[in-house]
Amino acid sequence: MRLDTITLTEQDLIQFLHKWISNEAYHNLETLSIYTEHRINIDLIRQAIEFEEYDPSHPEKRPADYRIDQSYVSSTPITLYLNQDFVEIKRITDGKRAFLALGPFDFDLLVHKD
């Protein structure tokens, strides 16, 4: 899912993440990219969730890249590189992993394909 130029608060994003982490909602979500109209406070969101920073000394813990099929836009998949901009979050109930990148105007959640 991709949402462009929308209005969200930090609390909206925190609530979304808590629901995904607790497996309360968004069970089958694979990707979510949000581009906001207004600046978001990244630090506030990061303080509200548990995450693991990227550790370059253990690259085997995560894939190097993530391919997104956007057949509704293009026949060529998009490849995102999971560098230090992405932190890892885990669902409590089943341990499913996702990679999260936050910017002042963007939010990317990529759920790991097991």
TrEMBL record:
What's the protein here called? F-box associated domain-containing protein
